[in-house]
Every structure is written in structure tokens, then in C-alpha cells.
Write a structure and sequence with these properties.
The protein has 16 helices and four strands. By secondary structure, it is mainly alpha-helical. The strands form two sheets. It has a two-stranded antiparallel ribbon with strand order 1-2. Strands 3-4 form a two-stranded antiparallel sheet. Helix 2 runs parallel beside helix 4. The protein is globular.
């Protein structure tokens, strides 16, 4: 999950089959198309309209916000008849044709958002059917249908399958599942980038560690959606928190769970010194990578690496709000999801209310929660018992008040 998907370079990379993910791009100051009603943000939506809308809606729902109907309608209106979504469909009144480049990332993000909002089973069902139809023989997905599988696309589609109630291990093509595909991107425990994931192998089949791909693949291998919740640390095998969080604890990535543990250790080590990741532009000095750092926080929290996730989140609290203000709604959404993953209130993100600022980038919500939603209990109680007791209490109170009034009237009648 990265604002890099808003870059025109990503679409170009997908077309030519580039093996490296596109770098983040700043929002265009002069959109080449009119900003549609209901869309979040003011930047050109050509390359990221559905992605940023989906992230914004998912983050709002996660924070307890009920978005405006027209914001949801804009997203559902972007869907093609076959269930797929493109990055942006300029004229929803016209049928999708071969010139419109649909993609797996936009479709998977829309599935996750619409599933979270509820009430869109028809749309998400068609989208999931389309995603299954373009699964590659290795079990994974590329950005565009038919393109070579990559870790990021496979991970976000896996999250969509889970959100929609599917079991990814049962979604197979050529006998391979998404988990099988993710394992092909996992680096071994020796050499550079030990335990990390690659975006794709290069032309010689070599895997190169990629922090963005690792953050995405950890979530995918854990079977978690973009709005993953924090997981309690589980160090049953080592019994030693510090030892388990080091590269020396790496083991052969023969299962999705082990590959996720390896990837989380890699991210934990990468964040240990400065608590943020960096991105390098050709010919320029390394710069903090706010988006990938936020994604790494979600992955680490989902994997139970709470200490480093919290440290990185504190760095984001101090440094990322200005980046989000410049980058737009998807960036605010990434920070909201990072806060959620660590159990932090996104309305108290340092001195920043992320939810208010995200809300302000689109149509006014139907309802905005005033505080962070309570974390769900891991027990079988889904909240219905609490509602039941509140209801019973209210009924008892009404009965007692009625009884008191009846007795008072009776006494008055008995007085001479």
C-alpha cells in the first residue's frame, strides 16, 4: 500500500513489464481532467482515482466515520460490467472497452473498501470473480491482467480475498495459491536482504530485497487486509523477544507464516536505527520514505513486532503530517491505518487529527465519530451481548418509572 501507485510511472512500468516498483510522485498541481463530484483530493485522478478513494473510505470506516453517499457512489460507479476497476474511468456512462486499462490493485483496494463499508456484496462479488479469472499460473497477480506476478499486487489481492470471506489457500490456478506465489518472492536467510521479499525477480531470476514489497508481502502472507489490526507478539518458538526480532532468527521461508516472520524481522532491523525507511532518487540523496514507513508499521504490528512498530509510528507522528498534507487523501489514509494497526487514536496523532484532515479532502461525511472505536474483543462476543444488556436496562428503567408513577397516583386517590 503506497502512494507510489498514484504515479504515472507505475502504469508505464506495468505496460513495459519493469521489475522495479515506481517511485512516489507528487500530486499534479494542474489536473488534466475535471475532478469528479464525490472524489477525494484535488489532484489528477488519472492514475490513482480508485486507489485513493478506496483507501480514504477504508480509513474512514476504520476510524468510525460514515462517509458521504456520493463518495461511495463515485467508487461503485467506477466498476466495469465484468467486475474490474481501472485506476480511473473518466466517463462511467460509457461501457468499459479494451482501451481502458483495468488493474488488479485498484480492483483489490475497492473490494477491501466496499466490503468494510458493507451493503455492496454484488459489486465485491463481481470484482472477486474477475480477480480470480486473471490469476496467474504461479498463483499470483501482476498489476495488469496477464502481466508477471509481483509481491505487491499478489499481497493486495490476497487481502481483498480475505476481506471478502474467501480462503486464499483455496484460490488456485495451476495448482498454485497466492501464498505459493508470495513464497517465490521471499529471499533466503543468507546474503544481502536476508529474510526480505523482492518485488519481482530480475531477468536473471535474482531476488533483490525491497522494503515496500516486504511490507506488502508480510501482510499478504499473514492473510491480512490493508486495515490490519495489532497482533500480540508471539515468540513461542524462540521464547526470547530480542532474539526472535533479529535476522539471526530467520528460518527457511517454506511456509507463508515463516516468510512473514522473516520479512517482519527484516523490516524491524531496517527501522531499528532511525525508525523510518528511505527512498533514493537517481542522482539525489536518500530521503525519508513516509509512505513505506507507514506500510511497514502496519506489517510489523500485524506480525506482532509492536515495539518497533510503535517507535516508527512515533517518528511518523513527528514528521509525516506535512508529507500527508502535500500528498493528499491516500497519504492521510495510510497514516490512519498505521495508527489503527498500533492501537493509536488517529485523532491524536501527535498534535494532528488525521481523521478531520482526511474528512476535509472529500465530501462531508454523514457521520464522524468523536473518538476511536473500541477494539473488538477476541472472544465470541461480537458486541450483541452489550447491546442486549443496554436494551434490557432501558426497559427495566421504563418499567420502574411507570410503576412509581402508578403507585403515586394510587396513593393520591386513597388520600381523604
Amino acid at each position: 500500500m503506497n502512494v507510489r501507485r498514484s504515479a504515472a510511472a507505475l502504469a508505464a512500468a506495468a505496460v513495459i513489464g519493469a521489475a522495479t516498483p515506481a517511485l512516489a510522485a507528487s500530486p499534479s498541481p494542474t489536473p488534466s481532467v475535471a475532478i469528479p463530484d464525490g472524489l477525494y483530493g484535488t489532484a489528477d485522478p488519472t492514475y490513482d482515482g480508485v486507489w485513493r478513494q478506496s483507501l480514504a473510505l477504508l480509513a474512514q470506516d476504520t476510524a468510525g466515520v460514515v462517509p458521504a453517499d456520493r463518495a461511495v457512489a463515485w467508487l461503485t460507479g467506477q466498476q466495469c460490467a465484468n467486475g474490474a476497476f481501472a485506476a480511473f474511468r473518466p466517463d462511467p456512462t460509457k461501457p468499459c472497452d479494451a482501451k481502458l486499462m483495468v488493474d488488479t490493485n485498484s480492483t483489490a483496494a475497492a473490494v477491501q473498501a466496499l466490503t468494510a463499508l458493507g451493503g455492496h456484496a454484488a459489486q465485491t462479488g463481481k470484482a472477486v470473480t474477475w480477480l480470480k479469472s486473471v490469476q496467474n499460473a504461479d498463483g499470483g497477480w501482476g498489476y495488469n491482467p496477464g502481466g508477471p506476478s509481483d509481491a505487491n499486487s499478489t499481497a493486495v489481492v490476497t487481502g481483498a480475498l480475505v476481506a471478502a470471506g474467501e480462503r486464499p489457500e483455496q484460490v488456485v490456478k495451476g495448482g498454485k495459491s497466492p501464498y505459493d506465489a508470495l513464497l517465490t518472492f521471499a529471499l533466503p536467510c543468507t546474503g544481502d536482504g536476508a529474510g526480505a521479499f523482492a518485488y519481482q525477480p530480475d531477468k536473471q531470476g535474482k531476488l533483490t530485497a525491497n522494503a515496500d514489497a516486504t511490507a506488502a508481502a508480510v501482510l499478504g502472507a499473514l492473510g491480512q487486509p490493508l486495515n490490519a489490526s495489532p497482533k500480540k507478539a508471539d515468540y513461542a518458538k524462540k521464547g526470547d523477544k530480542k532474539a526472535d526480532a533479529t535476522p539471526s532468527g530467520c528460518a527457511a521461508p517454506t511456509t507463508p507464516e515463516q516468510a512473514a516472520r522473516n520479512g517482519a524481522r527484516y523490516l524491524s532491523t531496517a527501522l531499528a536505527e532511525d525508525h523510518h525507511l528511505v527512498s533514493a532518487l537517481p542522482g539525489a540523496e536518500n530521503q525519508p520514505d513516509y509512505g513505506n514507513t507507514a506500510d511497514a508499521v502496519v506489517a510489523l504490528a500485524a506480525a506482532g513486532h509492536t515495539d518497533e512498530a510503535s517507535a516508527a509510528l512515533h517518528w511518523l507522528e513527528a514528521n509525516a503530517p506535512q508529507w500527508a498534507a502535500q500528498s493528499g487523501p491516500a497519504a492521510y489514509a495510510q497514516l490512519v491505518l498505521a495508527a489503527h494497526a498500533t492501537g493509536t487514536d488517529p485523532r491524536a496523532f501527535g498534535s494532528t487529527d488525521l481523521v478531520r484532515l482526511l474528512d476535509a479532502t472529500g465530501p462531508a461525511p454523514k457521520q464522524t465519530a468523536t473518538k476511536k472505536p473500541e477494539a473488538s474483543d477476541a472472544s465470541d462476543d461480537d458486541g450483541s451481548s452489550t447491546t442486549l444488556w443496554v436494551t434490557v436496562g432501558a426497559v427495566v428503567l421504563v418499567v420502574l418509572v411507570a410503576a412509581a408513577l402508578f403507585l403515586a397516583r394510587a396513593r393520591r386517590r386513597q388520600q381523604p
